[in-house]
Amino acid sequence: MINVLIYNENLHEQHSEKVRSVYPQGIHGCLRSFLESDDICVKTVTLDSVNDITDELLDKTDVIIWWGHMGHAQVPDEVAARVQAAVLKGMGAIFLHSGHHSKPFRLLMGTSCNLSWREDGDFERVWVAKPTHPIAKGVKRYIFSEHEETYAEPFDVPEPDVTVFIGGFEGGEVFRSGLCYRRGAGKIFYFQPGHETFPIYYNPDVQTVIKNAVYWAKPDCRLEKLDAPQVKKPGKDGE
Amino acid sequence: MINVLIYNENLHEQHSEKVRSVYPQGIHGCLRSFLESDDICVKTVTLDSVNDITDELLDKTDVIIWWGHMGHAQVPDEVAARVQAAVLKGMGAIFLHSGHHSKPFRLLMGTSCNLSWREDGDFERVWVAKPTHPIAKGVKRYIFSEHEETYAEPFDVPEPDVTVFIGGFEGGEVFRSGLCYRRGAGKIFYFQPGHETFPIYYNPDVQTVIKNAVYWAKPDCRLEKLDAPQVKKPGKDGE
Amino acid sequence: MINVLIYNENLHEQHSEKVRSVYPQGIHGCLRSFLESDDICVKTVTLDSVNDITDELLDKTDVIIWWGHMGHAQVPDEVAARVQAAVLKGMGAIFLHSGHHSKPFRLLMGTSCNLSWREDGDFERVWVAKPTHPIAKGVKRYIFSEHEETYAEPFDVPEPDVTVFIGGFEGGEVFRSGLCYRRGAGKIFYFQPGHETFPIYYNPDVQTVIKNAVYWAKPDCRLEKLDAPQVKKPGKDGE
Amino acid sequence: MINVLIYNENLHEQHSEKVRSVYPQGIHGCLRSFLESDDICVKTVTLDSVNDITDELLDKTDVIIWWGHMGHAQVPDEVAARVQAAVLKGMGAIFLHSGHHSKPFRLLMGTSCNLSWREDGDFERVWVAKPTHPIAKGVKRYIFSEHEETYAEPFDVPEPDVTVFIGGFEGGEVFRSGLCYRRGAGKIFYFQPGHETFPIYYNPDVQTVIKNAVYWAKPDCRLEKLDAPQVKKPGKDGE
């Protein structure tokens, strides 16, 4: 059983009827609906309950999925630091769309995570750059979205371990849309699709990718704690 | 079931009584003995039968393990090219010790794969640099070998995806002893321990690592063929 | 003074009047015309004279630029191996457009270097993904080409050290168009623009990039030879 | 002229006569003494004056060198954030020895930067793993230090762009001692030698490496600000 924790700030859903009409159960509700299965157990947290993201909860979480945008600054620094530490100890993390600017993602990347953007409802093709990667399993040459917010390079992140997807937008921009990282004991996947006003998370291909990413990001190994141990001179026994 | 193909040139075993006394069934026999299990099915090939490494056999192989040294040059170029192509299509590959200079490893790396060396029977500690990597599972801080051939930096390989092990030798030298790469659809692991005159492959920790590497390297996905397709202008259907 | 060696197979120029009309002095002549300067000394070689690419010439070459397409197979294996070895010893190398399938590039990458393609004369924008990289100096957000052959992902190369450019084509495809690698002591840049029937190499931005790449790829350090030395046990003197 | 800013917390020098006897002008004074030249202009800051590290000063700094240990926590978060931002805009950064746990280094890496350690005054050989890298220029096979604090793997940092040095200690431990990173527009070098009670920074080879690193890390390009711009739909002019 894989324990998934979905964080969605759930602000756009409250403030905008349009968003509410697309995601009546919130983006977290939509994500939960296609992830929950015999293999995957889902919990959700929103900005209202962000302090529920305790060390105890994170220790029991295999993969966290993060959607945030207008409420990034309201996530307490301590919560962001806890998420970072949990990833370094082995928890997987999937950051969606505007989550590129969330506190935990920026902490893990060490860079500004800035990008260029415009909002014209362009269509997008998310091209598969690494078709044999487990996260791309089941996707054809590209994923098509009728309308999407345009994200554009330069994307200020460290060079990824693997570039799985590259998006191409109607207006011409390109963007590295699916990126894998290893930090500490944890695996991180950034996935660009997902503007709140478009029904992106109903797209079966997008759902396939997020589900694949959950399986990919689940821990190989968990550390009980991060530490910098003073050690003894080694002998012949591997201790 | 994981299908493993072990290539061992099996020359030292024929030419040296000392080597024969350490590995009476050949290095391939020793590797086979600890790998074969309910999960893992092993076939072996030696230099005598190297042309048995056909495309048909490779298509059925999940992971190849390669041990060679004095017979590198006798491996036909076509066989080496077949192994390279099979890796690019998804087959895993584990290169042991002097396999750093084998034709398939050099083809896959694109570099000289040169290193410095001396043969004084130094002890070695193979330190775990990435303890949470699946290949290091079950190993303590380091693996100890009473006697080993000394391999030393600089090791002329591309920067690895992950440095899992770094060896330290009695005389002082250091060497990146366990390195992971992805090339095409395949995963590659280089592992330094294993001189023919020392009983390295009887070390339980070394066996653990090689077994872990088999599980790690098995294909996520296999390509039927490598190709450079002419494609049609994309539509909206992902084809 | 930077010594640049341009290899252009010069076959399309002989066989096609259209190509000849675009590049009356050959692609190599065009490249030479904008590179030659007080700092840069250019020599050129074509397929007719490919055996002039000797070790002696390569030892005096700081950066090789490679354009080939229909004549890849006619480049002798020994010449390709010499170029590979020279790069590993420190020579810079720039592979242009269809040079992705040249023998030396494939040897250095270790992968198939396959890509998808179509030839519809689409326009292309080559977007700058890493604007602060020295190779991108002087380029705005993107380079525009009125007509280009379409190259598309997946591009089967190892993950690059830096993704400097990503191309987006009129028909929608995307492609990692500018990639940096270090192999051995040498630096390698792959740059996608440059179909033979379009006047791409007259584009001032394309010229800027190729010129920048020459400065970037020139050796930091040259090895006299590639070797795998037997060494002595170390003392305290760094020898 | 390269403008170098040396930060040394200068606490051990105040609290310990032993340290003061080794570094009577402080570690910063020692570093300054061998760096200052016709090409390099040095300023120094200590923990007492850490708030002098303003954006204005960082904008004029080409490379910062950071030595800290017991006073890491006393460096204000705002100062650490300023240093991080300056690196992302292009300033080079060299972190020495216990600087692996400094706030700016941890911010830039995104990981715990933990390592194992013991303090027995072991000798160390810092082996050159990439002899053709500009930072290793002028160093033989290794740098020898009679006494050094022992640092040991695992070192919890992201996989580096280049592993330039690997240390081997008398007691047997190994450690990745010289690591290069690119983050944003900036270049970062971590270099392990330098315990406060040993005269490491008087070692001519160590001085050579730090000097080389200054030349290597100086900016290729500076950004005026980090931003995430809203952009217009692209045309044909590269704007």
Structural account:
The structure is a homotetramer of 239-residue chains. In chain A, strands 2-1-3-4-9-8-7-5-6 form a nine-stranded mixed beta sheet. The first copy, chain A, has helices at residues 12-15, 17-22, 26-35, 55-59, 77-88, 103-109, 204-217; strands spanning 2-8, 40-45, 63-67, 92-96, 116-128, 142-152, 162-169, 174-183, 186-191. By secondary structure, chain A is α/β, with parallel strands linked by helices. The first copy, chain A, is globular and about 65 Å long. Chain A has a domain at 2-111 and 177-217: 3-Layer(aba) Sandwich (Rossmann fold). The mean pLDDT of chain A is 96. In chain A, helix 5 (77-88) crosses helix 6 (103-109). The A-D interface holds A 84-85, 88, 101, 107-112, 114-118, 120, 152, 156, 158-159, 161, 171-173, 181-184, 226-234 and D 84-85, 88, 101, 107-112, 114-118, 120, 152, 156, 158-159, 161, 171-173, 181-184, 226-234.
- Quote the average pLDDT of chain A: 96
Question: Which sequence of SSEs, written as H and E, runs from N to C of chain A?
Answer: EHHHEHEHEHEEEEEH
Rg over alpha carbons of chain A: 18 Å
Q: Name the CATH architecture of the domain at 2-111 and 177-217 in chain A.
A: 3-Layer(aba) Sandwich
Low-pLDDT regions of chain A: none
- Please give the count of helices of chain A: 7
Q: Look up the CATH topology of the domain at 2-111 and 177-217 in chain A.
A: Rossmann fold
Work out the number of β strands of chain A. 9
What distance separates the N and C termini of chain A?
Answer: 32 Å
CATH homology group of the domain at 2-111 and 177-217 in chain A: Class I glutamine amidotransferase (GATase) domain
Decide which structural class fits the backbone of chain A.
alpha/beta
Helix content of chain A: 10-25%
Oligomerization status of the protein chains: homotetramer
- Percent strand of chain A: 25-35%
Tell me, briefly, the overall form of chain A. Answer: globular
CATH top level label of the domain at 2-111 and 177-217 in chain A: Alpha Beta
Q: How does the major sheet of chain A shape up?
A: 9 strands, mixed
Question: Greatest interface and its residue counts?
Answer: A-D, 37 and 37 residues
| Sequence of strands across the biggest β-sheet of chain A | 2-1-3-4-9-8-7-5-6
